[in-house]
């Protein structure tokens, strides 16, 4: 038979074990709620380009209103989207403006397929571009997993020269895709 002192020690140990287990399970469920996934618990789905932000405002469409969001300057970016599949593959519709040598411009788009992984708040997508080069793109995940943002420190984007002809400018770009 246990003496009263031993009995109380065992009882306290059991209560501490139960409290530790409860805290551990509470922590797990809290992490699950804040893991940046969407409300259904997965990140699969289609994300449409909603912003093509440049470091400098342009008036590419020549309407008198400059914007850093190039989607307000051209419809060429409208088809851009990423569809993430549950098997960790994706389809990426890349859309952009091609500035021609005669200073005109045309909309260009192509599709690529690849694979993706997600770690914490980063989604990494890898694909082969039309010229056969491997491309890896990192997206920051936010808005409970419903927003993917790619930032390019130095790239080219469309602008107009002093005569109004299409040209490109070097600068930073941020692409924002939303589910």
Structure description:
With 179 residues, this protein is of the alpha+beta class. Helix content is 17%, strand content 50%. It is globular. The protein has 2 domains: 1-34; 45-178, Lipocalin (Beta Barrel). The longest helix has 30 residues, at 4-33. An 8-stranded antiparallel beta barrel has the order 1-3-4-5-6-7-8-9. The protein has one helix at residues 4-33, and strands at residues 45-58, 67-69, 81-84, 89-99, 105-119, 122-128, 134-142, 147-160, 166-178.
Q: Mind sketching the topology for me?
A:
Elements: H1 4-33, E1 45-58, E2 67-69, E3 81-84, E4 89-99, E5 105-119, E6 122-128, E7 134-142, E8 147-160, E9 166-178
Antiparallel strand pairs: 1-2, 1-3, 1-9, 3-4, 4-5, 5-6, 6-7, 7-8, 8-9
Overview in brief:
By secondary structure, this protein is α+β, with helices and mostly antiparallel strands.
CATH topology of the largest domain: Lipocalin
- What is the string of helix and strand elements? HEEEEEEEEE
Rough outline: globular
Beta-strand fraction estimate: over 45%
Strand order of the largest sheet: 1-3-4-5-6-7-8-9
Number of domains: 2
Rg, Cα atoms, Å: 25 Å
State the helicity in percent bands: 10-25%
Low-pLDDT segments, ≥5 res: 4-40
Averaging pLDDT over every residue, what do you get? 80
- Largest β sheet strand count, sense and barrel closure: 8 strands, antiparallel, barrel
Taking the alpha carbons of the first and last residues, their distance comes to 64 Å
């Amino acid at each position: 038979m246990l003496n009263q002192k031993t009995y109380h020690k065992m009882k306290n140990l059991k209560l501490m074990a139960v409290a530790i287990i409860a805290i551990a399970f509470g922590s797990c469920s809290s992490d699950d709620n804040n893991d940046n996934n969407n409300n259904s618990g997965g990140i699969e789905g289609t994300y449409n380009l909603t912003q093509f932000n440049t470091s400098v405002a342009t008036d590419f469409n020549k309407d008198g209103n400059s914007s850093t969001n190039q989607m307000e300057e051209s419809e060429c970016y409208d088809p851009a989207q990423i569809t993430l599949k549950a098997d960790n593959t994706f389809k990426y519709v890349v859309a952009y403006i091609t500035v021609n040598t005669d200073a005109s411009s045309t909309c260009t788009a192509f599709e690529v397929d690849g694979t993706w992984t997600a770690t914490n708040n980063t989604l990494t997508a890898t694909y082969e571009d039309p010229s056969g080069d491997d491309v890896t793109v990192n997206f920051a995940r936010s808005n409970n997993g419903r927003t993917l943002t790619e930032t390019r420190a130095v790239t080219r984007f469309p602008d107009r020269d002093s005569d109004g002809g299409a040209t490109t400018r070097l600068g930073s770009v941020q692409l924002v895709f939303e589910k």
